[in-house]
Design goal:
By secondary structure, the chain is an alpha+beta fold. The protein is built from six helices and four strands, in the order H-H-H-H-H-E-E-E-E-H. The chain has one domain: Nuclear Transport Factor 2, Chain: A. Strands 1-2-3-4 form a four-stranded antiparallel sheet. A hairpin with a 4-residue loop joins strand 2 and strand 3.
Length: 172
């Protein structure tokens, strides 16, 4: 267990290392004296997202590893993000078919070829105690946004696991 905690701390330190500050564009013009409201400049490029709690930071790292495996079509790796209890009930084949079906639906809905590369990216992380959720955007490899997916997670024995119902995921 201490090795797992050390690994998590190392990953959190790496994830929280502050990259070079982005240069902001020049301020936007503000409203003139004759207008009723004053415009507030908003930077065009937001800064890096940093979760406020260690639980949320750990969830982001876990969710990003999951979405990277999805993007790289490493379905065997995506299966390992399910809890051990889930894997006792649901084998990898139904899980793989579900992932493939989800991607096929996204491609079909957006009139893409069956082999069009898709990129999954974590866009929002929320963690409260032992439950969490992530919002994941799906886009083409050229950056065209296609879909938003929500995943629920559960903290079990100090680790975040996908929190899916085996009955629904293994319906095949």
């Amino acid at each position: 267990m201490p090795a797992v905690l050390l690994a998590i701390v190392a990953l959190l330190a790496l994830a929280c290392a502050s990259p070079a500050k982005p240069t902001l564009p020049p301020p936007l013009p503000t409203a003139t004296a004759t207008s009723q409201a004053t415009a507030t400049p908003i930077p065009a490029t937001p800064g890096p997202i940093v979760e406020r709690t260690p639980e949320a930071q750990a969830l982001r790292l876990r969710a990003e590893a999951f979405t990277l495996a999805r993007t790289e079509a490493r379905f065997d790796a995506t299966y390992t993000f399910n809890s051990p209890a889930f894997r006792e009930v649901c084998g990898p084949d139904p899980w793989f078919f579900g992932l493939i079906g989800e991607a096929s639906f996204t491609r079909g809905w957006n009139n893409l070829n069956d082999d069009a590369p898709l990129v999954w990216t974590v866009t929002l992380v929320e963690a409260t105690g032992v439950s969490g959720s992530t919002l994941v955007s799906v886009a083409t490899d050229t950056g065209r946004g296609l879909d938003l997916l929500s995943y629920t997670w559960a903290m079990i024995d100090g680790e975040w696991w996908l929190d899916e119902s085996p009955e629904e995921a293994c319906a095949l």
